[in-house]
Amino acid sequence: MVNLHRLDLNLLLTLDVLLSEHNVTRAAQRLNLSQPSVSVQLARLREIFDDPLLLPGPRGMQPTARADGLREPLRQALEALQRAVSPVSEFDPAQAQVTWRVAATDYTETAVLLPLLARLRAAAPASRLAIFELNPGQIQRQAEQGDIDLFFHLRDGSPPALHQRLLFSERYVLAGRVNHPALQRRPTLEQFCSLEHVIVSPEGGGFSAATDLALAQRGLTRNVVLSVPHFLFMLDALARTDLVAVLPERLVAKSGVLRVVEPPVELAGFDMLMLWHERLHRDPGHKWLRQQILASLATG
Known about the structure:
Layout: H1 9-21, H2 24-31, H3 35-49, E1 54-57, E2 60-63, H4 65-85, E3 99-104, H5 106-123, E4 128-133, H6 139-145, E5 150-154, E6 163-170, E7 172-177, H7 189-194, E8 196-200, H8 210-216, E9 223-228, H9 231-240, E10 245-248, E11 258-261, E12 270-276, H10 284-298
Parallel strand pairs: 3-4, 3-5, 8-9
Antiparallel strand pairs: 1-2, 5-12, 6-12, 7-10, 7-11
């Protein structure tokens, strides 16, 4: 077996040209080397492969059986290596047959991915988008292993080792059905606390959130009567009942069935980030996707 440590790329390139030209002089000209240099390399190749490779003949040098067996595999290997080290080609979205894998919550599905869909389908019709449920504790591992290409997560708790891009800063509003009698104007704190509230508890079963912490600092509590794991059910419940909810503004900004007012308690918002691994940072297709997401958010 040939010891690969004894080979280098220059030797393989010389062998490929020699097997094509069957002539040391012509091979030297193609390689822009002197004839003695090519002769020295051929001698090393003969030693490494333990075979003459090329023998003198009546019409120039003739390849041995070993050399004939090397010709096609060597050509394919060098072509594959050339493709691997060539500059990355430009990404053509109109022709791209690619599947992007992103991790999102139901909130970011609505706030980030829904505005993207029409643009994505029009520009890259052969592409596919796979949306996975975001698991904050697995972001770093999934990024490193290549399971997920792109994540949408709050700034708080985002793995610092990943590339980050701020998508937007979100704030909270109070929402209920469009004709809700208590939301025709901004309610007082007392009115707010007396209303029946619904909250999203991603882990399930929770009946308190950041709003309750803000109220507790004032010695107040509100009446939370419904806890759901996803925003979709919450929005439907708001439209069909007299329940109200404090929720991110982007979920209800364009709703025609909900009324939105300022909550009577000051609440800190949050920054939404787009996260990705270094291995995809310079990939043309991934860069294009990130640009499309930013553009879709900028145009609303």
